[in-house]
């Protein structure tokens, strides 16, 4: 909770006038305990998970012809019951695992120094911290994900996530409860090492969830802004990981592609890309290309 409740008190403490964003933050958070501010994460996760996948889900179910050309595995059609089952299963994990974990993890947030007060961070500070969070999470996630594709990790834990060989947005967090907990560790390491403001932490949680939904969407959309992010894997990249499935040793990266390239775990994907490029060069894009994607 902020140590001041009026604009005058806040400006006196800072020794300057408040910015527009700081004024909004003061009015919203002055009377809210830090614990409740932290618990906003639960609401953000639920809303993002529910709403972000919906446009493509509805398009696939109601107007498939509008998006069929962008579907990475065009011959795979999930029935409505499959979408509903996935959503319900993830919501159960959310209420029985993710939510309770958020409720009890507040002491660790305070311990590492994530703050709620004024001044607010600058835009560049937030961008720099978020970049660090993404890089740290991506590296940690790579090795945990790679371990989960070993015999024991896959059979006991990770195979649930791979039930969707043609992934959908709702399946981004569809996994064994233990996997949800384990893969949550890299997401917190960045904020723990480079603590920032609670708003930055909120934004990190939201962006990471949106990214996971994007890479599991099953669609390679041509106007996606993520195509302009260097080394970003995207839906096509991660779809290959689900397509080959099982204990595959390909495309473990959650966000970027540099770990797979450095450690040689993208060779199958690059071989397929080169092969498809040859087919396209010979004018067979509409025939064999779609067959390779979906068979």
UniProtKB/TrEMBL annotation:
<dbReference type="GO" id="GO:0071771">
    <property type="term" value="F:aldehyde oxygenase (deformylating) activity"/>
</dbReference>
<keyword id="KW-0560">Oxidoreductase</keyword>
<dbReference type="InterPro" id="IPR050307">
    <property type="entry name" value="Sterol_Desaturase_Related"/>
</dbReference>
<dbReference type="GO" id="GO:0005789">
    <property type="term" value="C:endoplasmic reticulum membrane"/>
</dbReference>
<comment type="similarity">
    <text>Belongs to the sterol desaturase family.</text>
</comment>
<feature type="domain" description="Fatty acid hydroxylase">
    <location>
        <begin position="131"/>
        <end position="265"/>
    </location>
</feature>
<keyword id="KW-0472">Membrane</keyword>
<dbReference type="GO" id="GO:0004497">
    <property type="term" value="F:monooxygenase activity"/>
</dbReference>
<keyword id="KW-1133">Transmembrane helix</keyword>
<keyword id="KW-0256">Endoplasmic reticulum</keyword>
<keyword id="KW-0503">Monooxygenase</keyword>
<feature type="transmembrane region" description="Helical">
    <location>
        <begin position="35"/>
        <end position="61"/>
    </location>
</feature>
<dbReference type="GO" id="GO:0008610">
    <property type="term" value="P:lipid biosynthetic process"/>
</dbReference>
<protein>
    <recommendedName>
        <fullName>aldehyde oxygenase (deformylating)</fullName>
        <ecNumber>4.1.99.5</ecNumber>
    </recommendedName>
</protein>
<keyword id="KW-0812">Transmembrane</keyword>
<dbReference type="InterPro" id="IPR006694">
    <property type="entry name" value="Fatty_acid_hydroxylase"/>
</dbReference>
<dbReference type="Pfam" id="PF04116">
    <property type="entry name" value="FA_hydroxylase"/>
</dbReference>
<keyword id="KW-0456">Lyase</keyword>
<dbReference type="GO" id="GO:0005506">
    <property type="term" value="F:iron ion binding"/>
</dbReference>
């Amino acid at each position: 909770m902020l140590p001041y409740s009026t604009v005058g008190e806040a400006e006196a403490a800072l020794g300057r006038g408040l910015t527009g964003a700081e004024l909004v933050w003061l009015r919203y958070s002055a009377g809210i305990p830090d614990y409740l501010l932290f618990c906003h994460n639960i609401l953000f996760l639920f809303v993002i998970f529910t709403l972000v996948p919906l446009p493509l889900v509805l398009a696939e179910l109601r107007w498939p012809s509008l998006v069929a050309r962008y579907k990475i595995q065009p011959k795979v059609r999930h029935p409505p019951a499959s979408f509903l089952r996935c959503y319900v299963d993830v919501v159960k994990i959310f209420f029985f695992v993710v939510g309770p974990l958020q409720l009890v993890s507040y002491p660790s947030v305070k311990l590492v120094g994530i703050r709620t007060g004024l001044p607010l961070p600058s835009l560049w500070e937030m961008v720099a911290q978020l970049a660090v969070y993404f890089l740290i999470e991506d590296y940690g996630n790579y090795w945990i994900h790679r371990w989960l594709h070993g015999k024991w990790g896959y059979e006991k834990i990770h195979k649930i996530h791979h039930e969707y060989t043609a992934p959908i947005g709702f399946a981004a967090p569809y996994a064994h409860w233990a996997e949800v907990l384990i893969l949550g560790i890299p997401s917190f390491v960045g904020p723990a090492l480079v603590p920032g403001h609670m708003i930055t932490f909120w934004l990190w949680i939201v962006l990471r969830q949106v990214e996971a939904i994007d890479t599991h969407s099953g669609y390679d959309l041509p106007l996606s802004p993520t195509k302009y992010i260097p080394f970003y894997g995207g839906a096509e990249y991660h779809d290959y990981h689900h397509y080959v499935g099982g204990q595959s040793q390909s495309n473990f990266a959650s966000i970027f592609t540099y770990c797979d390239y450095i450690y040689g775990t993208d060779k199958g994907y690059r071989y397929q890309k080169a092969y498809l490029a040859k087919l396209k060069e010979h004018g067979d894009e509409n025939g064999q290309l779609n067959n390779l994607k979906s068979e």
